[in-house]
């Protein structure tokens, strides 16, 4: 969009995932791609305003990074937006898509799709407080809401108050009858509806989310929308991010970082964090999928799981696990040469 404050990294982003995309995970993912937009886990206004911990901590290496905010009170949302801007976040995203009971009981998340006026009020209040972009992540509907007119009726008031970027998970959220886990898979995907929504609101930067597993699939979606967001697939197979800068951002000089380099960098990071009292497993758990689909992948996961949890707290954990992977790969190569 011309004259937009939106960051070009929205072409590809990693979804906000509760209990997963913490600051250690984001540090790890940033090593694999310099261009990808990263999102925090959802943080509620209550946690920021009344919580005793620092829920907004992030490292400078994570930029560009978006805070995903959960809430529905315009005054609280505006206050948190101001705090987030002061802390240095690039953008703020309003959660209107999460179907969990915790979210529903707090009057935010997917249930807000039934009250677009409240979401619009939050956007307006936040935009009056900050200069950074305010964006929204939603579903294509909830429960018996009509996916066609209902979705249009939800988006229109948001655009009227200046929404620039909308991320749409191309599934409904069934708040009645399905668990949060089931809501990630059971409601059918409807990518075509998101494509039509983009045509309807052509001036709004629109990203698509839900069930996307490969960069080839992402390229197909990018023929219809402005951005692609991937979540669980990136977490389970993070090394696919190493190709994003070249494949999706056209960085011809981008060289995919090696797994060995990632392990060395993460080991240095773990040592630094360990010296500050952070448990090794809180960081190492995010790297379990680094060798997904590769020889030694199971050995990598098994070694980390067996030697990283419980009372174990060895800052050299990743290096020791990699030694086991190299031994296994060497054995596999010798076996194939002799047979």
UniProtKB/TrEMBL annotation:
DUS-like FMN-binding domain mapped to chain residues: 14-313
GO molecular function, one term: tRNA-dihydrouridine20 synthase activity
Reactions catalysed, as given in the entry: 5,6-dihydrouridine(20a) in tRNA + NADP(+) = uridine(20a) in tRNA + NADPH + H(+); 5,6-dihydrouridine(20a) in tRNA + NAD(+) = uridine(20a) in tRNA + NADH + H(+); 5,6-dihydrouridine(20) in tRNA + NAD(+) = uridine(20) in tRNA + NADH + H(+); 5,6-dihydrouridine(20) in tRNA + NADP(+) = uridine(20) in tRNA + NADPH + H(+)
Annotated site residue numbers, Interacts with tRNA: 95, 181, 184, 301
Enzyme class: oxidoreductase
InterPro entries: Aldolase_TIM (IPR013785), DUS-like_FMN-bd (IPR035587), DUS_fam (IPR001269), DusA (IPR004653), tRNA_hU_synthase_CS (IPR018517)
Keywords: Flavoprotein, FMN, NADP, Oxidoreductase, RNA-binding, tRNA processing, tRNA-binding
Keyword NADP part of the UniProt annotation: yes
Positions of FMN binding: 16-18, 68, 137, 169, 209-211, 231-232
Family: Belongs to the dus family. Belongs to the Dus family. DusA subfamily.
The name this protein goes by in its record: tRNA-dihydrouridine(20/20a) synthase
Source species: Glaciecola siphonariae
